[in-house]
Amino acid sequence: MKAPPFAYVRPATLDDVLAELAGGDAKVLAGGQSLVPVLAMRLGRPATLVDINSVSDLHGLEAVSGQLRVGAAVRQRTVERAEQARAVPLIGMALPFVGHRELRSRGTVVGSLAHADPAAELPAVAACLEATIEVAGPRGRRSVPAAEFFAGAMTTGAGPDEVVVAARFPTARPGEGFGFAEIARRHGDFALAGVAARVRVDGDGVTDARLTGFGVSDRPVSRDVTALVRAAGEHEPELRAATAELATEVVDTAGDAHGSTGYRRRLFGVLAARELARAVRRARSRQEVPA
């Protein structure tokens, strides 16, 4: 199918972008890898597409003050290959699962967050790392925690007259380890179930552990699993018993032709146990060596 008719504008400044969004029924176009299929299937009919690729302020990628700041027009493939992005290992683990290389060459990190597909990898990364989303609108700029940004399937905390301008991911610290995995019918397909894990350790053991599931609800679902991981450590059989129980709480998506709710719960439990165990081992290997 072809998209319905729309007006196309390519502003050069953020102020001009906001002026276009204030005019009524408009959608932001960055990489287009989520929006264009929606238009082609006529699931969306915006009157205007506002292309933000000429706004130079939105192309920044920098690691500063313990955070990796990714501008709204930065391609996923750019982040995948960027030296400074290695400071956030979980992004590097997740990006190879995002579509295919050709799609990542156009798709943007922030665009994936703004699209808020519940089966997408990058929203789960943002939720697991407790990233911050920068939003600009007619009332000024504001920073939204990832936990508050994802409001539901394809729904975020950004208003129709606002634009997401960047995302800030905390960089990894010594004693911090990560895990990421998903199950899909084919590489590049939407995940039937997936997990992102972050674990922190010190000389006394696990101090913090966070687990995020995706493809299992209408948004990324995060849980503090510190007590669970502290009790089981990196022993996957013990972790699996606990994550199987957790799956009954976290996985609430309805079954479909690709997998029942019960099947997704089993996937979540197995993946969660495996990746938490890996995250613990990686965290221990990254501990600072006393001088």
Automatic annotation (TrEMBL):
Residue ranges annotated for the FAD-binding PCMH-type domain, each copy included: 1-174
SMART domains hit by this protein: CO_deh_flav_C
Keyword presence, Transmembrane helix: no
GO MF term list: FAD binding; oxidoreductase activity
Superkingdom field: Bacteria
Iron-sulfur found in the keyword field: no
Organism: Pseudonocardia kunmingensis
Entry protein name: Carbon-monoxide dehydrogenase medium subunit
Keywords linked to the UniProt accession: FAD, Flavoprotein, Oxidoreductase
